[in-house]
């Protein structure tokens, strides 16, 4: 082999190892649309997913069943209606819908078995009826109520690949037909997935078909290759609702706002599409991505009661010092909050001190949102703010969270390292550990 080709291959191998390292232990939720389930490209697609799985990447599969449900209902002579794109699932139809949903799941199971991997199908989704909307009774069509993510995490830890049929059950065991795109999006946020893939026979958002927000660039093929959540929201606002591609964009926005880093809308007929999206910076579909700090904003006066509520359980556990309303009001400009859809899930503060130093303090994440990377976003925002202010060192005083701060580059320090004023206020009884972050040293 010519030496420059060999060199290229070595570069490529290095890059792939780098990517694998980055995604090891992370979860990818893969929705495979019904339009792809019948395609000759399916076995190769599953093979690629198995390759990722073998590198320690966790895979969750959600097969789409629309086409299969249509087929089975037609075969058994059962009529159905759709209202605004949503199927009304009658009591007569639901057993057949279940049959179709499990049938497509079994197909994926068979593909996994062909690659020597264990898949598992289960009933880990609680659903509720869509009910009656605008006078239309949707009967057995439902929406995701809750996902038993603890069980799913255990399965993933056991190196199994969970497969989710688009059926959920209420507490009484009544089955509901749920939208598999909605299911995949809900799964990705409840599992704090790194990525969510919508794989169908569509390439992604085609520029010419929509009114695009300003500044969106198209690929040579006219495809919108990437959208931040803010851009995606503008796209949704500027175009009529009800378009299936825009529905995916809407779900992508929601998933990103709930902690998923990237959502990829790709065409499963393209060979190696998932690998191309993961292992190259170019990609070949439309990617919606979360800006790490998109949901972080300065705290306002009206947020104070909510921030105090967030801190309360940690104050009781002595992880945080007591703060009153007037304490926050006095230093309001130091505080930031993490907000999604008008609800505050976390807060934190950067208190400037002397000698170009500042204290990271009052970091608190709503316990129901723990483990979704919200705390990381708050602290990385504060670090960025400190850099923008030209500060040289940050410190944090913590009783129970020292190990968590290590990920940002904080190192052990001592009370003697604190600015004098802070040293004087140091509560010896509380005996907090002091951690330091030298901003010049960390890129
Ligand atoms: C610590 C805290 C900010 C983390 O928030 P979060 O949004 O859950 O954090 P992230 O999602 O970014 O990170 C979660 C990871 O950190 C780990 N983690 C959480 N608390 C930790 C702690 N006290 N020590 C070490 N690791 C911890 C979790 O196990 C999880 O690990 P995983 O990704 O391997 O599953 C949150 O638990 C909190 O509010 N704690 C109480 C207040 C506090 O101590 N603040 C710091 C002093 S200012």
According to CATH, the homologous superfamily of the largest domain is Acetylglutamate kinase-like
Give the number of domains. 2
The helical percent reads: 25-40%
Main sheet makeup: 7 strands, mixed
What does this structure look like?
By secondary structure, the chain is α/β, with parallel strands linked by helices. It contains 15 helices and 23 strands. It has two domains: 3-289, Acetylglutamate kinase-like (Carbamate kinase, 3-Layer(aba) Sandwich); 296-438, Gcn5-related N-acetyltransferase (GNAT) (Aminopeptidase), CATH 3.40.630.30. The strands form six sheets. Strands 17-18-19-20-21-23-22 form a seven-stranded mixed β-sheet. Strands 2-1-13-15-16-14 form a six-stranded mixed β-sheet, sandwiched between helices. α8 (229-237) runs antiparallel to α9 (244-257). The longest helix has 21 residues, at 3-23. The radius of gyration is 25 Å and the shape is globular. The chain starts with a helix and ends in a 5-residue tail after the last strand. The mean pLDDT is 93. The structure holds coenzyme A (COA).
How is the secondary structure organized here?
Blueprint: H1 3-23, E1 27-32, H2 34-37, H3 42-54, E2 58-63, H4 66-75, E3 82-83, E4 86-87, H5 94-114, E5 119-121, E6 125-129, E7 132-133, E8 136-137, E9 141-147, H6 149-157, E10 161-163, E11 167-169, E12 175-178, H7 180-190, E13 195-200, E14 226-228, H8 229-237, H9 244-257, E15 262-267, H10 273-279, E16 286-289, E17 296-298, H11 304-316, H12 325-330, E18 335-340, E19 343-352, E20 357-365, H13 374-388, E21 393-398, H14 402-405, E22 411-413, H15 420-425, E23 433-438
Parallel strand pairs: 1-2, 1-13, 5-10, 9-12, 13-15, 14-16, 20-21
Antiparallel strand pairs: 3-4, 6-9, 7-8, 11-12, 15-16, 17-18, 18-19, 19-20, 21-23, 22-23
Helix pairs in contact: 4-5, 7-9, 8-9
């Amino acid at each position: 082999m010519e030496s420059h080709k060999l060199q290229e291959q070595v570069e490529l191998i290095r890059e792939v190892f780098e990517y694998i390292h980055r995604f090891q232990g992370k979860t990818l939720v893969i929705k495979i649309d019904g339009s792809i389930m019948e395609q000759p490209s399916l076995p190769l697609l599953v093979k690629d997913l198995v390759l990722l799985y073998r590198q320690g990447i966790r895979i969750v599969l959600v097969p789409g069943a629309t086409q299969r449900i249509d087929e089975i209902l037609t075969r058994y002579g059962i009529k159905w209606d759709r209202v605004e794109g949503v199927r009304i699932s009658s009591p007569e139809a639901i057993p057949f819908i279940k049959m179709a949903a499990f049938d497509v799941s079994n197909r994926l199971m068979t593909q996994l078995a062909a690659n020597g991997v264990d898949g598992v199908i289960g009933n880990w989704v609680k659903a509720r009826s869509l009910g009656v909307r605008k006078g239309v009774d949707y009967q057995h069509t439902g929406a995701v109520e809750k996902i038993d993510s603890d069980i799913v995490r255990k399965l993933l830890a056991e190196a199994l690949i969970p497969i989710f049929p688009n059926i959920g059950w209420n507490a009484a065991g009544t089955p509901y037909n749920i939208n598999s795109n909605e299911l995949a999006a809900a799964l990705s946020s409840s599992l704090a997935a790194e990525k969510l893939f919508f794989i169908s026979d569509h390439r992604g958002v085609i520029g010419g078909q929509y009114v695009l927000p300003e500044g969106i660039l198209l690929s040579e093929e006219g495809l919108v290759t990437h959208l931040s959540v803010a851009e995606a929201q503008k796209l949704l606002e500027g175009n009529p609702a009800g378009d299936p591609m825009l529905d995916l964009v809407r779900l992508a926005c929601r998933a990103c706002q709930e902690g998923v880093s990237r959502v990829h809308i790709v065409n499963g007929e393209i060979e190696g599409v998932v690998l191309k999206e993961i292992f190259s910076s170019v990609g070949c579909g439309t990617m919606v991505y979360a800006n790490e700090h998109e949901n972080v904003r300065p705290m306002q006066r009206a947020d104070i009661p909510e921030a105090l509520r967030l801190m309360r359980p940690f104050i009781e556990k002595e992880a945080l010092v007591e703060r009153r309303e007037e304490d926050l009001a006095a230093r309001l400009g130091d505080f930031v909050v993490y907000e999604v859809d008008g609800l505050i899930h976390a807060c934190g503060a950067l208190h400037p001190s002397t000698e170009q130093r500042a204290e990271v303090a009052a970091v608190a994440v709503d316990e129901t949102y723990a483990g979704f990377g919200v705390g990381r976003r708050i602290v990385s925002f504060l670090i960025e703010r400190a850099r923008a202010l030209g500060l040289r060192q940050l410190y944090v005083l913590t009783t129970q969270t020292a190990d968590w701060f290590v990920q940002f580059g904080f190192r052990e320090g001592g009370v003697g390292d604190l600015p004098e004023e802070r040293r004087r206020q140091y509560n010896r009884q509380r005996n907090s550990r002091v951690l330091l972050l030298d901003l010049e040293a960390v890129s």
